[in-house]
UniProtKB/TrEMBL annotation:
Keywords: ATP-binding, Chaperone, Cytoplasm, Nucleotide-binding, Stress response. This is Chaperone protein HtpG. InterPro entries: HATPase_C_sf, HATPase_dom, Heat_shock_protein_90_CS, HSP90_C, Hsp90_fam, Hsp90_N, Ribosomal_Su5_D2-typ_SF. Residues 26-183 form the Histidine kinase/HSP90-like ATPase domain. Belongs to the heat shock protein 90 family. The gene is htpG.
Length: 615
């Protein structure tokens, strides 16, 4: 097989474009990316050779070496790790397997401002492609451990790359960058200078567990200390932060660092981080999650989902468990009792760290705005930690534009107020202006405004906080004391309510008088266990078939439209126009809560007719 020219996958091409025209100002990080890939390759080879005794690989001096040539203006990063087969090169370097790439690129294209773009690309992590920020040509030579022939790959980062077999490739991978001219104004430094390389390695890759050598020197540039194994007092914040960037591929410092060590029957060390901002794929089904698992300093796997629950998927870091088998699979991990113990402790520790973080308001608000939505999922999935999670909630309410904790809400409750009131909906404005609010606002009761889709689900699971019931203002009967409708009023309205119930039977299951309305004529409420309209919409959007939920029409007995309808009905119950009025009343109530009319054309025609008659 001779040399072939292949095209990059479309998304890769777009990403490369961004790299070539380098939108990111800190170009030094390309080296961190290459060293991180080399380190991964060495980890993989070590693990594979421990498991597969027949693998014909040389593991005697695993290391990373850097070579610079000032004359040729090249920098080479070489490892003697696992290497890649030809197919792997095409697969791994020619395409981006990450889920959400297209989505990320679309957002990139749409965002005008450069800072926002940087932010996005930083969240995405560009790995190998970051080399094109500093090089106008990249040559990669690789041979997979155990295989005979090697592969040479070369590209200028434009549309295509060349690939050809080579006979004399050493085991592992070398990446040679043909460097762009130095341009310090653009933060493009001289990466063919020893001094610069030393500085970058020390800064970004000091904790890499493999020796990183420069030129012919055998003395590694890095200290190689596994950060998590060192005592906390000996590690600087800066070192923690760089390590975080290494494991997360984030470009900003973490918000919080958690360093744990457990001794005794089951020994492990954990170094966890809470990021400052959410990754782009936090809410994508195939998004990256979980921490890295090591066994006695040997890297075992990335994204170890057995160690953290789904709702804490944003926590990054490393767990080094001492007594596990190197051979352990993901499936076995899920069931391992010791792993479950570790997981429980990690969760407790993360939650207690967040509880402490609440002391500094700004910081916690920052955390909440990035990860609050994910944390709420814990209220559904993690019954053991429900109380801690409830205390971590921050929710919008009618009290002010600020978020409130449940505890603060309770402390503001009126003396005669029994329950914690909330309403779910699609937006703050919709909830705030909904007719259901009227009586609550009139009484001065605060109502929580829940507009995250996940809110619809957790409120169904949580019945109380601090001995107070959580009560939806759009469901069930409300008991607001004195506003209860008197018996004679009930009697007066009984025939009208019955008639309306019959006329509207396709749309509602009951018509009754309301104590929650002060200014609106009507509203629609659900029974205690009815699914909310927002949730119904969400299920439909996900393609689920649902029977239509009929809800209850509540009327305001003091509203002129309602009293007028009652008089008209008792005067001539068979009047054709009354049926239309009933229909309009129902439509108005539906619109007020942001609902959808079954037949909008008919509704507008009825309204227009009435308006015409009133002129
Ligand atoms: N030195 C190397 N040796 C062996 N395989 C490599 C090497 N460099 C890259 N690869 C392969 O190419 C893939 C793509 O690398 P890239 O750095 O772009 O992404 P990544 O390392 O998977 O993810 P990220 O760097 O964003 O965490 C790697 O997953 C790896 O399989
Ligand atoms: Mg990488």
């Amino acid at each position: 097989m001779s040399s072939e020219t292949l095209e990059f996958q479309a998304e890769t091409r777009q990403l490369l474009q961004l790299m070539v025209h380098s939108i990111y100002s800190n170009k030094d990080i390309f080296l961190r990316e290459l060293i991180s890939n080399a380190s991964d390759a060495l980890d993989k080879l070590r693990l594979e050779s421990l498991i597969d005794k027949d693998l014909e690989a040389d593991t005697s001096d695993l290391h990373i070496s850097l070579e610079v040539s000032a004359e040729d203006r090249t920098l080479t990063v070489r490892d003697n790790g696992i290497g890649m087969s030809r197919d792997e090169v095409v697969q791994l370097i020619g395409t981006i397997a990450k889920s959400g790439t297209a989505e990320m690129l679309r957002k990139m294209r749409e965002s005008k401002d450069a800072a926002a773009k940087q932010e996005l690309i930083g969240q995405f992590g560009v790995g190998f492609y970051s080399t094109f920020m500093v090089a106008d040509k990249v040559t990669l030579v690789t041979r997979r451990a155990g295989e005979k022939g090697g592969t040479r790959w070369e590209s200028a980062g434009e549309g295509t790359y060349e690939i050809e077999p080579v006979d004399d490739a050493p085991q592992g991978t070398s990446v040679t960058l043909h460097l762009k001219p130095e341009d310090t104004d653009d933060q493009l430094h001289d990466y063919a200078a020893d001094r610069k390389i030393r500085e970058i390695v020390k800064r970004y890759s000091d904790f890499i567990a493999w020796p990183i050598r420069l030129g012919d020197s055998d003395t590694p540039l890095n200290s190689m200390k596994a950060l998590w194994a060192r005592p906390r007092s000996e590690v600087s914040d800066e070192e923690y932060h760089e390590f975080y960037k290494h494991v997360s591929h984030d470009w900003t410092d973490p918000l919080e660092t958690i360093h744990m060590k457990a001794e005794g029957t089951f020994e492990y060390e954990a170094l966890l981080f809470i990021p400052s901002r959410a990754p782009f794929d936090l809410f994508m089904r195939e998004g990256k999650r979980g921490v890295q698992l090591y066994v006695k300093r040997v890297f075992i796997m990335d994204d170890c989902e057995a160690l953290t629950p789904q709702y804490l998927r944003f926590v990054k870091g490393v767990v080094d468990a001492h007594d596990l088998s190197l051979n352990i699979s993901r499936e076995i991990l899920q069931q391992d009792r010791q792993i479950q113990v570790v997981r429980r402790r990690l969760v407790k520790k993360v939650l207690s760290t967040l509880t402490e973080m609440r002391e500094s308001k700004e910081k916690y608000l920052g955390f909440w705005s990035e990860f609050g939505r994910a944390l709420k999922e814990g209220l559904i999935d993690d019954a053991d930690n429900r109380d801690a999670l409830l205390d971590l909630l921050l929710l919008p309410s009618t009290a002010s534009g600020e978020l409130t904790s449940l505890r603060d809400y309770v402390s503001r409750m009126k003396e005669d107020q029994k329950d914690i009131y909330y309403m779910t909906g699609e937006s703050r404005a919709m909830v705030e202006h909904s007719p259901h609010m009227e009586a609550f606002l009139a009484k001065g009761y605060e109502v929580l405004i829940l507009t995250d889709p996940v809110d619809e689900v957790w409120v169904e699971r949580i019945t109380e906080f601090d001995g107070k019931q959580l009560q939806s203002i759009a469901k069930g009967q409300v008991d607001l004391g004195a506003t209860e409708t008197p018996a004679e009023q009930q009697e007066e309205f009984a025939p009208l309510l019955k008639w309306l119930g019959e006329k509207l039977q396709d749309d509602v299951k009951d018509v009754r008088l309301s104590s929650r309305l002060t200014t609106s004529a009507a509203c629609i409420v659900g029974d205690e266990h009815d699914i909310t309209p927002t949730l119904e919409k969400m299920y439909r959007a996900m393609g689920q078939e649902l029977p239509r939920t009929k809800r209850i029409l509540e009327l305001n007995p003091t509203h002129p439209l309602v009293t007028g309808l009652r008089s008209a009905f008792s005067a001539s119950p068979d009047d054709e126009g009354l049926v239309e009025t009933a229909e309009l009343l129902h439509g108005v109530a539906l619109l007020a809560e942001g609902g959808e009319l079954a037949d909008p054309a008919r509704f507008t025609r009825l309204v227009a007719d009435r308006l015409a008659r009133s002129l």
